[in-house]
Amino acid sequence: MSKVVFAGLATMSLLAMAAVSPSPSALPKAEMDKMVDACATCHGTNGEGLEARSAPRLAGLSKDYISRQLANFASGKRGTDTGDIYGSQMVAISKTLKPDDIDAVAAYYAGLSASAPHPVVPGDVGQGKLLYESCAACHGEDGMGIAELGAPRLAGQADWYVLHSLKLYKSNSRGAGDTYGQQMVAAMQVVPDEKAMRDVTAYLATLSER
Ligand code: HEC
Ligand code: HEC
To answer: Of the residues 100, 179, 180, 210, which has the maximum number of CB atoms within 10 A of its CB?
Structure first.
């Protein structure tokens, strides 16, 4: 357990370092601004996420995770299942991005911070905490993610998006096509139904307050 906590802390300090010294963008400023303006129409001006657009928070996710998701959308590993109606929007957008664009935009959002969105998903926090014990091995006790495992930060993510994502993994509409996502499909075995998904989501929302 302490090893997991340590890994989580190490990840946090790495993120903190990344925030202090973001790698300079390889793209000309005008190009970068244009791209980020496009993302902002759905993901919000500071990458905080917009529920009205079903678009999650990007601020503070790791550069590696953001890059990988953009590549997954572009290659059709994510967002192409008929059950994944929101992901399909990202498929079209990702296909317009060149490798340099992905690199720059992922670094940009990884370096931003945003306050946690207001929770909207009710659930039993106590039950959720128990369930989260099975998640912590990969996402960290503090929900900050574990880079080495490819497991993203969940603390501070919008709860409606977390719930939506869990439903997608549970119904095999996300994750089946790639090795990282498959781990999530497997992890959902301990989350039997929508009530359990809501409980663990409600617990995660309490982590974002720290
Ligand atoms: C038309 C709206 C729209 C635009 C524009 C848009 N996105 Fe998205 N994006 C979404 C939605 C909706 C999702 C959630 C997909 C899902 O539910 O799986 C998403 C998901 C993502 C994810 C996955 C996040 C995660 O936690 O797994 C990343 C990364 C992302 N978008 C990056 C970008 C970037 C970078 C841009 C600009 C180049 C962009 N998006 C532009 C709507 C949009
Ligand atoms: C074996 C490691 C592992 C376990 C256990 C695990 N996860 Fe994950 N999780 C991952 C990985 C890896 C990803 C990234 C998958 C991808 O690229 O699509 C992920 C992605 C997610 C996402 C999507 C985040 C986003 O931004 O789109 C959510 C939500 C999530 N996990 C919640 C949970 C919950 C809740 C549990 C416990 C019930 C859990 N995970 C257990 C490894 C794990």
So the answer is: 180
Q: CA 62, 125, 164, 37 torsion: positive or negative?
A: negative
Rounded to the nearest 10°, the torsion over CA 10, 16, 20, 21 is 40
Q: In whole angstroms, how far apart are CA 152 and each of 22, 178, 209?
A: 19, 15, 17
Whether 202 shows a pLDDT value over 70: the answer reads yes
Q: Are 185 and 172 in contact (CB under 8 A)?
A: yes
Token pair for residue 18? 């990344």
pLDDT higher than threshold 70 for residue 9: no
For residues 88 and 103, what is the distance between their CA atoms, to the nearest angstrom? 21
Please tell me the predicted confidence (pLDDT) of residue 204.
Answer: 97
Enumerate residues lining ligand 1, CB below 6 A. Answer: 35, 38-39, 41-43, 53-56, 58, 61, 66, 69-70, 86-87, 89-90, 93, 105, 164
Task: Return the amino acid letter for 101.
Answer: D
Query: What tokens appear for 58 in the block?
Result: 């990007």
